[in-house]
Every structure is written in structure tokens, then in C-alpha cells.
Amino acid sequence: MLSELPKKDARNSQKAREAILDAAERAFAELGFGGASIRGIARDAGVNQAMIHYYFQNKDQLYDEVIDRRAGAVNAQRNAALDRLFAEGVPTLEKLMEALLRPTIEMGHDETRGGSAYARLVVSFSNSADERSQNMTSQHYDPIASRSIAAMRKVMPELDMAAAVRAYLYSISVALSVMARTGRAARLSQGRCNDSDTEEIVGATVAFSCAGIRALAMQAVNQFDEKVE
Amino acid sequence: MLSELPKKDARNSQKAREAILDAAERAFAELGFGGASIRGIARDAGVNQAMIHYYFQNKDQLYDEVIDRRAGAVNAQRNAALDRLFAEGVPTLEKLMEALLRPTIEMGHDETRGGSAYARLVVSFSNSADERSQNMTSQHYDPIASRSIAAMRKVMPELDMAAAVRAYLYSISVALSVMARTGRAARLSQGRCNDSDTEEIVGATVAFSCAGIRALAMQAVNQFDEKVE
DNA sequence: GTCTATAGTTCGATAGAC
DNA sequence: GTCTATCGAACTATAGAC
After folding, report:
1. pTM higher than 0.85, yes or no?
2. For a Cys staple, A159 with which of A164, B45, B196, B209, CB 3.0–4.6 Å?
3. CB within 8 Å: A177 and B169
């Protein structure tokens, strides 16, 4: 009877787990995997150092769980948006790209739940070629990427596989760069271009990506024509 | 007389310096600043650990010199290309963007001189928001960025400052992502889209960027019209 | 679940011989 | 310029008391 209710310790431990993940997210984003330390994370989270090993065994698994927590949330949003869009037929390219890019950008701008630390983290490992980073990317993001690429080809049948993959990767790289919010836009424009207005940025990245994708489709068609002639 | 000729030790030391920079570049790219170790770099470069402190004092200055060596080379190319282009009047957007993006992409594809390690390194710190990375970016890349943004506005006067800064940052993020060559394109396309054909990639990124920039310019003009009406 | 204590590494940096 | 030797600090991880 009583044992089925959450015990005080269990509630606390859940809090501790989340606090560790939050602190680890900040540390990995700021210092990289190699530069972050279990000690520092424990101090930041307000827990004993040994607790991190109790909950997460070691540094590698902690890293994996930090990424899994956020990637799961974003990709669920993106999958749901795709389901909704294609339930009503084939959407426009603009609708499709907004469905794919908005959740990513919004998470990076979600200051309150620490999303911006994850933003910097995902930008970092998704652009890295070392084995750990590639494992994280392929494990957590390749499935939604494949589905997105297939969706783009439904919307724009002119895109061959190579062009569609490029179109997706280029678009995502733009979204990731605005997700990271390094403050460089404000610096280069003397404040005339901030990186905090979410709606403005979603609009700009969607417009930029869609125009770019159409240009890649044109290239693919022209190359095909050249071969036929 | 003899003292004006390079001494044997001086020649050797120059070799050692370069070997250290090469090894450090690989280590920082693969493991991050925090994850790389002076010991490992020394082993990789085939020099004594103490030599690194002799030549570079400490880890921070070593990092700075690694970046400075490559950034200087790329930016010299980009500046020269801009000089050449504008000497003959105002170029097309395509010519301008190719001048800006090609040196970046080609360095990432220059396997022989280790450029691909630097590629991964520059992608990593240019997308990071921590203080060290921001210092590196602003110190080594903000000047050419400002000049590029001004050049883009000359070619496309419809771009206001905010739109031009976005246009530049979005385009560069695409070029950086292909520069890093993580192998993801090949993975997602089952080999139908490689990330090694430099000319094909320059063509695709320039086409993607120019179309995206024109879309941003359209947005800026439309917003202006809305305010006027 | 929470903590202390500590084993066992590895790190950056320097001193000093040659 | 090059090397060995080493200091002092930080690190991951675990054992074991409570």
C-alpha cells in the first residue's frame, strides 16, 4: 500500500537526477566533454560527487542521457508536426520546413528550461567528426533526418536523393547556428540584429532555406537536362 | 657572417614548432580544448613535452597560435578575392559569395596540409558561446565578416543591416557545415551524396546561399512596404 | 540513497642539468 | 634548445559506513 506511493527519498532522487542533468548540460556545452568534470557538475547541481556515479554510472552515460532527454522532446514535436501536416495531403515547402525547423529553434530560445545550453551542445557535437559525436548524432538524429528527407522529396519530387540530403543538411545547419545564439549577430550589426526574436528568426530561416532548396532543385533538374541532351 | 645564416638548431626548431602546431590542431579538433592534453600533443608531434612550454608558454597560447596560423591564410585569400572582384566594378551576388565561401570550403577539403582538422576546429568554436570561443571568433573572423557584409550590401542595396548580417551568418554556417565533413551526408544518402567533391559542393552552397539571400532581401523590402502603407 | 575516504591516473607547469 | 625529473593539483571511479 504505502510502498506504491512515491517515497520521500524517491521524490528527492528525481529532483537530484534532474539537477545533475541540468548542471551536466551546462558543463558539457560550456567546456566540452573532455573539459567538463564530474566534480564540477556535482558542485553545480548541489549533490555529492558519488551520487552522479550512483545514478549514471560514468561520464559517458551521463553525456548520453543529457542528450537523450532533449533530443527525445524535439524529435517528438517534429514527428507530430509531420504527422499532422501530411494527414491533410501534401503540404507546401514552407509549411514543411517550418514544421522541421521551428521546434529546434524554439528549444534553443527556451531560456527558462535551460534549452539554450542544450542548443550550444547539439550544435557542437552535430558539427564534430570524432566518434563520440558521430555516434550521438546518428543515434539521436538520423531517424528524424531520414524521415524529413523523404518528406522533402514528396513535396518537391524534382529533388533527387543527393540534392535532398544536401537541402536538409544545409537547412538544419542554418537552424542550428541561430539556435546556438552566440551573440555574434548583435556584435556584427551593432545591435541592429538580435538573435532573440524567435518569430522573426523562424521566418527568416524558413524563407532562406526554402529559397535555397528550390535553387538546389533547379540545379538537379538542369544537370538532368544536360545529360539528356 | 655565419650568425646571419639559419643555424641548424634554428631550422630544427622551426620544424618542431610546425609539428607541434599540426599535432595540436588535430588534438583540439578531435578532443576539444579541455579534452586535449599537452602530453598527448607532444607524443603525437614527436617532441619532448617541455618543448611545448618552451615554444608556446602554455595551453591557451598554443590554442591561439593554432587558430591564428590558419585563419590568417584563409582571410588573406578572401580579402584578395574581394579586392580583385570590386576592382572591376560591382560583381554579381554569385561571384561575391563564391569569393567568400570557396576559400573556406577548400581549406576544409585540403587533406594534404591537415586543413580538415582545422575545419572541424573552426566549426566547433565558431558555434560555441563560451568566452574563449567567442574571443577566437571575434578576434580572427569579425574583421573579414564586417567587410563581407558591407560588400553584400553594395551588391544588394535592398538588404538592410539586419538582413545582411543574417544573410552572411546563414551562408557561412552552411559553408562551415560542409567544411567539417562529418560523413553524415554519405550516411543519410547511402553513399549517393558524398562530401568530398569540392567543385560540386562549392556550386551547391553558392546556389543555396544566393537564393536564400535574395529571399531575405525580399522579406526586408516587404516589411518596408508594410510600414509605408 | 547519501556520504566520506581514498585508490589510482593524468594533468599543466617548472626547475635545473646538459 | 633539449631533456629528465618532479611538484602540486585535478581528475574518474570505487569501496564501504551509515
Report:
1. yes
2. A164
3. yes
